[in-house]
Design brief:
This protein is of the alpha+beta class. The protein has ten helices and seven strands. Strands 4-3-7-6-5 form a five-stranded mixed beta sheet.
Length: about 230
């Protein structure tokens, strides 16, 4: 094919795009057109257009169905968050608070393991087995600094060192994790939610549920601090 042929084809294609009614005005031209199937006899231009529109419609329906499913899941999560918030607000003792929190995350958020690391020793001591006190000066915390400074939940797969620090002997079972900073810039600590499913927590997934839950936890931590600490905060 020569350059002149290519140029002519481009001109015709541009003209038809700018004048989509052209073939309606000249039906004899439409009747003369035909397109070959990849593995079959020739079909009319209209048949090919209908088939293409059907494919696009199928894809749009698939995307709409997915969006509706996600919207339904988010609505259920937000309703459960509201209910969980009301439940947690009535629990004053840290041990009962974090026990109820961990159970809810396992039941409602399909978590396999929940670990909360707090920087305040008094509250951590009262919170029971679900919570571990971590010295904010601990050098191992440096590896989480980028996560804490983001001030929102980060999801994905963690390296062996981070998993070991968070989950200890159970770290080998954790394939994906949601890291939730507690307090502004993680000033109160960090909550780690682990799953044995590599695809359960992934970068870019919606984290509004966990970010709002972090605010509820931070509020409870503020209320549970010794009075002298609250006065100087």
């Amino acid at each position: 094919m020569s350059k002149d042929d290519v140029s002519l084809n481009d001109i015709v294609a541009r003209y038809l795009r700018r004048n989509p009614a052209f073939l309606s005005e000249y039906p004899d031209v439409l009747e003369a057109l035909h397109l070959n199937h990849q593995t079959g006899p020739a079909s009319s231009l209209i048949e090919r257009q209908v088939a293409q529109l059907r494919r696009k419609n199928h894809e749009l329906n698939r995307q709409l169905s997915r969006l509706m499913h996600v919207a339904s899941e988010n609505e259920q999560l937000m309703a459960r968050l509201h209910q969980l918030t009301l439940e947690l607000m009535t629990i004053e003792k840290p041990r009962a608070f974090f026990k109820h929190l961990a159970k809810s995350l396992r039941d409602d958020f399909k978590a396999d393991i929940v670990k909360v690391c707090l920087f305040e020793p008094h509250t951590a001591q009262l919170a029971g087995d679900q919570v571990t006190w971590v010295d904010p000066e601990d050098e191992q915390l440096q590896q989480f600094q980028s996560h804490l400074s983001r001030n929102h939940t980060v999801c994905g797969r963690l390296n062996e060192s981070k998993l070991k620090f968070l989950f200890d002997s159970k770290s080998r079972w954790v394939q994906s994790t949601a890291l939730v900073p507690l307090g502004e810039d993680g000033s109160d600590g960090i909550m780690a939610i682990g799953s044995s499913d590599p695809a359960r927590f992934y970068p870019g997934m919606g984290t509004l549920f966990l970010d709002l839950l972090a605010d509820v936890i931070a509020s409870s931590l503020s209320n549970s601090r010794p009075q002298e600490q609250r006065l100087t905060a």
